[in-house]
Amino acid sequence: MQHWIVQVMNQYGYAGIAFLVALENIFPPIPSEVILTFGGFMTTYTSLTYIGVVLFATVGSVLGAIVLYGLGRWLKPANLERFLQGKWGKALHINEGDVSKATAWFSRHGRPAVFFGRFIPIVRSLISIPAGIVHANMARFLALTIAGTLGWNAVLVYLGVLAGASWQKIVGYVGTYSTVVVLVLVILAVTAIFLFYGRKQTRIKNEHGVSQE
């Protein structure tokens, strides 16, 4: 995949960068660190400029975020609630009330989640979906997305400029950072799930005990 990314960027320049970053936002497995650090390296031997690479990478990020935001708008809390009324909801022990709680939480804390989520692998792409689900203000969503992605892009492109022909070393460092962050997120997610189900089971038992009395 890395060879294909480099080939597209060499052939199409800024347009290739915007396209690849947009694609990376929609399909997180595509490594943004390769696109951005190699883009920085390209400024050392082509007519591409640092500002140009950062700007076009940010345009691509925003376009990808808009697509996922639209997906979230299409899903809608009501559609998720109807879906969870079926066998999947029972299998996961999640009901429509849980969806309401989740959307209420995101409505309260969505702004920092959208901004800081842009610095976290995988989350930086997927955070746009819940923003769409809760119908987050589009102008505010775009402003936070631009601010967050601009920071991420600016740092990685600059590291690519500094590293020059050794840009792949930066990719390795960022890859390690991504792996550590993902592991931490998985641990936090598993812990949250256990706490969620534990509290839910306790509540069910208490309600069941009260009903028997």
Automatic annotation (TrEMBL):
Which InterPro entries does this chain map to?
A: DedA_domain, VTT_dom
Domain of life, source organism: Bacteria
Q: Where in the cell is it found?
A: Cell membrane
Q: Which residues form the VTT domain?
A: 30-161
Q: Do you know which Pfam families this protein is assigned to?
A: VTT_dom (PF09335)
Q: What is this protein called?
A: DedA family protein
Q: Which organism is it from?
A: Candidatus Cryosericum odellii
What are its GO cellular component terms? plasma membrane
Keywords (alphabetical) are: Cell membrane, Membrane, Transmembrane, Transmembrane helix
Record flagged with keyword tRNA processing: no
Q: How does it sit in the membrane?
A: Multi-pass membrane protein
Q: What is the lineage of its organism?
A: Bacteria, Pseudomonadati, Caldisericota/Cryosericota group, Candidatus Cryosericota, Candidatus Cryosericia
Q: Any coiled-coil ranges, and where?
A: none
Chain ranges passing through the membrane:
12-30, 50-72, 141-165, 177-197
